[in-house]
Design a protein that fits this description.
This protein has about 150 residues and is mainly α. The protein has helices at about 1-25, 45-50, 60-80, 85-115, 120-140, 150; strands at about 55, 60. The chain has one domain: de novo design (two linked rop proteins).
Length: about 150
């Protein structure tokens, strides 16, 4: 079961990496016109080239590329070293950070920009899928046993 989970994690990291790379190329002008600019609400141009497309001067898509690279490399290493429990915790931490950042970006799309980037939403779904899988893997490796002290009598 763990091997299947890690293979799915590799796949989701590759999808996220591809989507973030496309977003970065679009943001930097290497791709003209977005494939997901449909109307005022579904508009990658507003999201990916607007004032929130950078985080402290760094393109959000580049942050995504770096995050997904960490997840991809870590997942590939997990396939090679399935008993490395610290690698699972590392991946869990990176995935939590990525998921938190995705929630932040999604809230900006919904509440400030009132526009949605389909590429971004797909990337956010890839991150959600990854965090579900890494949480399941961490649970299977019994990383959360300490929680029983707090939640079970």
């Amino acid at each position: 079961m763990m091997k299947k989970l890690t293979h799915w994690m590799v796949g989701l990291a590759m999808v996220g990496l591809a989507l973030s790379t496309y977003s970065f190329l679009h943001n930097r002008g290497f791709v003209s016109g977005s494939i997901c600019t449909i109307n005022a609400t579904i508009n990658c141009d507003i999201v990916n080239k607007g004032p929130f497309s950078e985080f402290f001067g760094v393109p959000v898509a580049l942050i995504g590329i770096i995050g997904y690279l960490f997840l991809l490399i870590g997942s590939l290493l997990k396939i090679k070293t399935p008993n490395d429990r610290s690698l699972t915790l590392f991946l869990f931490g990176i995935a939590c950070a990525g998921f938190g950042f995705s929630l932040y970006l999604t809230s900006i799309e919904a509440t400030i920009l009132h526009a949605w980037c389909l590429i971004c939403v797909l990337s956010q779904l890839a991150m959600l899928g990854f965090i579900v899988l890494i949480t399941k893997l961490a649970h299977e490796e019994n990383h959360f046993s300490f929680l029983k002290k707090f939640f079970l009598p």
